[in-house]
Amino acid sequence: MNYFFTDRFIGTDRDKLQKKVGSKKLIFMKQIHSDRIEVVNKNSLIKECDALITTDKDVALCVVVADCIPVILIDEVRGAVGVAHAGRVGSYKDIVKKTIKKMVEEFTCKQEDIHIIFGPSIKKCCYEVGLEVVKGFEEFTCKEEGKIYLDLIELNKKNLKNVEVFSTCTCCDKNYFSFRRDGTNERFCGVASI
Question: Which helix (H) or strand (E) segment is 189 a member of?
Fold first, then answer.
């Protein structure tokens, strides 16, 4: 099982990514801020979804972000991997928990065997939001000097085990693309393969 997160110097450059994964086919998704999860293999085309799962050793799954959480899911027991795009909307829709459930249903994974990695993403220090977007999720916010900050990591970690979190805040660290900091269309990615 292999996974990695790129920075702004590799970003989503397909040639550089292909060198890192060798002969495996790179599979991206058309991310739509949903809770849609697709099972894919080397013959799959790009799908509209926000999570991919597979047991195909010939593919490398890719999730692209610029502040949202790039999530990697690995089950070494069953030989299954997944990636998920956990932005605010996907997080509210429990995209990570639903991806785990789909891995259990499709590949007979056990939840306790799935290791979850949250890659570099915007942290609560920088993710300022309006009151209108946190209704029902107030427990994952903090207030400082009259501003509201959302903690996407804690929102996604709730009731999960086997979680590893990269401490890097993409808005603070200029080695990563950040939509919140720069309004950029550039992205970096998380990649997972068996």
Answer: strand 188-193
Give every CB contact of residue 189 below 8 A, 6+ residues apart in sequence: 5, 6, 11, 12, 17, 62, 63, 64, 65, 70
Task: Specify burial of residue 33 (Cβ count, 10 A radius: 0-12, 13-18, 19+).
Answer: middle
User: Coil, strand, or helix at residue 56?
Assistant: coil
What is the DSSP secondary-structure string of 103-127? HHHHH---GGGEEEEE-SB--TTT-
Tokens representing 107 are 């590949």
pLDDT at residue 103, as a whole number: 98
Q: Tens digit of pLDDT for each residue in 140-153?
A: 999 999 999 999 99
- CB 115, CB 143: distance < 8 Å: no
Are 50 and 17 a contacting pair, CB within 8 Å? no
For residue 91, give the nearest of 122, 131, 46 by alpha carbon.
122
Q: What is the distance between the alpha carbons of residues 117 and 146, in angstroms, rounded to a whole number?
A: 32
Domains, the chain, ordered by start: 2-122+157-193 (3.60.140.10)
Give ∠ CA 175-167-35 in degrees, rounded to 5: 90
Helices marked H in the chain — which ranges? 14-21, 88-92, 95-107, 152-157, 179-182
Claim: this prediction has a pTM higher than 0.70:
yes
Classify the phi-psi angles of 167: left when phi > 0, otherwise alpha if psi is within -120 to 50, otherwise beta. Answer: alpha
